[in-house]
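Before the break, one more example. Copy the sequence into your notebook; we will annotate it together after we see the structure.
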Amino acid sequence: MHRLTKLSFGHRSVVLLVALLALVAGLYCTTTLKQELIPSMDLPRGSVITVYAGASPEVVEAEVTKPIEAAVQGVAGVTQVTSTSASNVSTVTLQWDYADDADAMATSIQRAV
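Here is what the structure looks like once it is written out:
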């Protein structure tokens, strides 16, 4: 290991050139990476985010979150509903099966809400 350190300090320009070549090769390989290696995915998930200005978390939960949860649980295909209520904001997250069409589910959820 001592030899490698001496060699690196003795030939700084060579070490810098090798590092730059590795960086350029990495950038080139990243840009030429085929799309098939990174498949596109449509996750079966959606969110309903609502804003209720000036409301406490308890009020947001009672007046916004609970009614939205009840409405979206009736949508065919929805498998899981989770929610978060905070000051002024309600977030309801939905999941459905991979086999269901995402656009059709989004339309159904919008109609239910």
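The first strand starts at residue 45 and ends at 51. The two ends are 66 Å apart (CA to CA). Try to locate both features in your own notes.
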